[in-house]
Amino acid sequence: MRKLARCFLLSGILALGTAFPAFANFSWQVENMNTDYVGTATVTVKDWEGNTYSETAPVVRNGAVVTFTELDNSAEFFVNAYDTEGNPITDFGGTGISGSVSQGDRFQYRMDWDSQKGIWNSSFEGQAGIFEIGAYDYAGGVWQQKFIIDGACSSSILSNVQRTNQNADSYTWRSNSVGWWVERPDGTYLTNSWYQSPASSLWYYMGADGYMLTDTTTPDGYYVNADGVWVQ
Fold first, then answer.
1. CB distance 141 to 101 below 8 Å
2. pLDDT digits (tens, 9 = 90+) for 190-215
3. Pick from 47, 114, 124, 163: CA 20 to 30 A from residue 220's CA?
4. HEC profile for the chain?
5. pTM over cut 0.85
């Protein structure tokens, strides 16, 4: 029988949190004393039966704290981990986290393998490349979100790496009669990418031609309003 997970129920808000679109009835953000959200990547992993599948996930630094907020029903959380080759670490994680989270409550977890493996008494000798945090509510819904530890995973299981938030404070908004775009310091511009404004912390999506999308659904399924702002 798997041990109960030990979660970090932290008091207070840590500096420089980075929000990202919600999944199902939960919203989440990565928080730490550094800017931990550094981009996204498509990662290939194996499930518990050995089947291979790919999933796009944020890339975060080791030790990042992720905060989940329950938007609807009471829920229980679970945590799994994968090694640097995308294989599940079989003696770590599961659905046994004790306690429930009510509507509006938060759950926080620190993605640091060295400390987490001790809590679980995992015998795995390597490093975790991916943490998976999910939840199930009492209405029967189950959701999960993976987080890739920056620099930990083998390059053979990563693809489509985007670091759209790195050096974001040096990017510049530009516009013409067609619309708005975000220019890099070298004069190139973002395409097919989310951009978070350092000034407002609001998220915008730059399309294939570089122009900010407005009043539409982004390619990854999120709505941006007439001002281009992602609507949670």
1. no
2. 888 888 776 666 788 899 999 999 99
3. 47
4. CCCCCCCCCCCCCCCCCEEEEEECCEEEEEECCCCCEEEEEEEEEECCCCCEEEEEEEEECCCCEEEEEECCCCEEEEEEEEECCCCEEEEEEECCCCCCECCCCEEEEECCHHHHHHHHCCCCCCCEEEEEEEEEECCCCEEEEEEEECCCCCHHHEEEEECCCCCHHHCEEEECCCCEEEECCCCCECCCEEEECCCCCCEEEECCCCCECCCEECCCCCEECCCCCECC
5. no
